[in-house]
Amino acid sequence: MIVSRVYRYRLEPTPQQKKYLLRVGMGCRYIYNLGLQQRSLARNDKLPSLYELHQQRLSEFQQQKDESEEKQSLAKQFSFGSDSSTRPIKHMITGQKQSKELTALRRQTDWMKEIPFSCLQNALVVDLHQAFQHFYRRVRNGKKISEASKNSFGYPVPRRKSHLSILWKPNDVSIKSLSKACGGKDYFSEIRMPKCPGLMRMRQDRPIPEAAKIGQKRVIQESDAHWYIGFTVEENIDWHSAAEEIGFVTLSGSTVSLQDGTVYPLAGKQDRTWTLVRVVDQKIAKKRRQLARKDKFSENWRKQSQQISKLQHKRAEALKSLRHEITNQLASRFRSLVVTDLSALSGPVDSAEPLLGVADFLKQLDYKMNWHGGELTLAMVPELAQGCSQCGRVKSFVQRNLNSFCCNVCGFETLILANVTQIPLSAKHSENELSRYT
């Protein structure tokens, strides 16, 4: 089976190469935001070109003296609750049209000539276009990413300075020297980028398969202020068939439980990763208390904020690694999985915060089950905890404090987790009742 993966490595640029990456990343961010501004003006009578918007921004930035005024103007410009969304679209904007305007803008702007054109073009034609395609798909399917936010369907927003992204074409970045140590003492490889001074070192902690086909390459700067490169690789993998037929997975608080009593994270590496997350949480809480006693926007306040951002990035990476380990074990063990979320139903029994992240956990588990040819069934409706797996009655009594279930119709007694995992496969439920649960 052909699988698309991303091999991510950390870069070790020199001070001169850091300036180069920062210049290219800020240029791609500026072009992305400029193209987004043009698309947001598609309902106006006259559509300005990218060069006209660039000149307009230059004049506005020269007149603005206060940073707060700049933030207020950008907030008004990208407001989602404005009346302009009800007006019809009068101009059709495509990536090809914006690419032509970008060529004309780059000829008349000196600092853009120092940045490779392929990066600026990918920011418009690939990144911005895909952001709008995802937005249109969510609107068609009625899938909201947030119920409380004004931007519930995820309309593209301007890029921030803290997360810079550079998308290269496959032939732009080349690996000049490949390390064979991969995790040893000398595991640094060297890559070459267009207009970059010298070769840039890369920490290669795992090898890229020789038979794999390397596609796009993306360089990003994350919240820990380090630069990373991701290689999109297509490789052919032969998965082994799972040993067990079906499994019931329950997400409750900060743990993942199976029907046989197995509770993740397991002892060993997963337990150490979970302990690391707890320790980092305590450090973040301490740093935030210290931050509250400092003068806002002072030099010490900025340094403390950067330390908190690095700790949050470390915590997110640890949780991401833990989710990958757990989902890999589940996908390789079962051919079919029934997942139930009891994080919002447990009440006083388990009030812990779902640190693993339900959405990210299910996303990883979904595509890994597809890789292995398995099936994933979701039973995430809160009414599951009030339904009986024996008689099918929905309004049944639940003793939350004792973590037990007792049906007031047929008298069936069991644990809440056992009752919920049996509901989706109960033969006594009709198809209409099952549709309410899945």
What does this structure look like?
- The protein is an alpha+beta fold.
- It folds into four domains: 8-61 and 84-164, no CATH class; 168-236, no CATH class; 244-379; 382-437, no CATH class.
- Helices cover 40% and strands 19% of the residues.
- It has helices spanning 15-40, 50-63, 67-77, 95-107, 117-141, 269-292, 299-333, 358-371, 416-422, 431-437; strands spanning 2-12, 164-168, 174-177, 188-192, 200-203, 213-221, 227-236, 244-252, 255-258, 263-264, 334-341, 375-379, 398-399, 404-406, 413-415.
- The longest helix has 35 residues, at 299-333.
- It is globular.
- The two termini are 29 Å apart.
- Mean pLDDT is 78; it is low at 74-86, 344-353, 380-385, 395-403 and 424-438.
Q: End-to-end distance, in Å? A: 29 Å
Number of alpha- plus pi-helical segments? 10
Judged by helices, strands and strand pairing, the structural class is alpha+beta
Nearest-integer average pLDDT: 78
Strand content: 15-25%
Residues in helix, %:
40-55%
Counted up, domains total 4
Q: How are helices and strands ordered from N to C?
A: EHHHHHEEEEEEEEEHHEHEEEEHH
Using the alpha-carbon principal axes, give the shape.
Answer: globular
> How much is the radius of gyration in Å?
26 Å
Strand order of the largest sheet: 2-6-7-1-5-4-3
Number of extended strands: 15
Report the major sheet: 7 strands, antiparallel
Low-confidence parts, pLDDT < 50 over ≥5 residues? Answer: 74-86, 344-353, 380-385, 395-403, 424-438
From the structure above, extract its key features.
single chain; 438 residues; alpha+beta; 4 domains; 10 helices
